[in-house]
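hiii, so i know i said id send this last week but things got crazy w the move. better late than never?? heres the sequnce for the chain we talked about at the cafe, plus the structure i predicted for it. fair warning i was half asleep when i ran it
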Amino acid sequence: MGLSVRLRWFLRVCTWLGLAFLYVPLALVVLNAFNQSRTFAFPPTGLTLKWWHAAANSDGVTSALWTSVKAGLGATAIALILGTMAAFAVQRYKFFGRSSVSFLVILPIALPGIVTGIALNAALATVIGPNNFGLMTVIIGHATFCIVVVFNNVQARLRRTNGALEEASADLGATGLQTFRFVTFPVIRGALVAGALLAFGLSFDEIVVTTFTSSARIETLPLWIFANLFRPNQAPVINVVAAVLIVMAIVPVWIAQRLADDAASSRF
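okay and structure toks below
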């Protein structure tokens, strides 16, 4: 049944209003990164690149950026290993409590970040002591929710993959490692890349869990932004950093979406 002309126009207007609600504030952040005025008057009083030079020469920004990169890479590595193993266990094997395992793996990303942060803070403080918090505890905290995106991507790919291919490989004399290398890994490679990109993106911009699992000597980029948000001299630099993060976020999401589309179009 076709839609009437009025309904089509109504849906178009609603779509554009929704997109404007989402992306106009982001566009203003990018515009303010070039705004010559510190007060961010609109329209801009002039365009300048001096805030970009200030951000590039800021030791706080570069140190926080490198900390976020290390935390993201560490959390992504853990998520790839544990998320992939959990996906294979749930999708390829039948055992008692399989649905419960799947639920428990997915649960952390559904919980409010502050709940996860408090729980991790209490658990880590009991095990290693509150004075030993550092980059590793941040990585562990981020990995708890990064595992979910890897798990979901790999499990979705395994659902669309015929397990008979792996059985045929084993029947032909291949070892488990050979089967994984030549049969399974090429199938799930796109899901692994997409899951890794999304996991890194989640870790990179996390602030709530980081607050509860880091120490005073560890400052990620989101923590640096939050700490300097209300300092007038740092406001233009923060807009530059935010603009860079917007661009950096677009790339992995676009790649992950393309990989997901390619996976959906290729079925066994």
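btw The chain has eleven helices and no strands. thought thatd interest u
miss u guys!!
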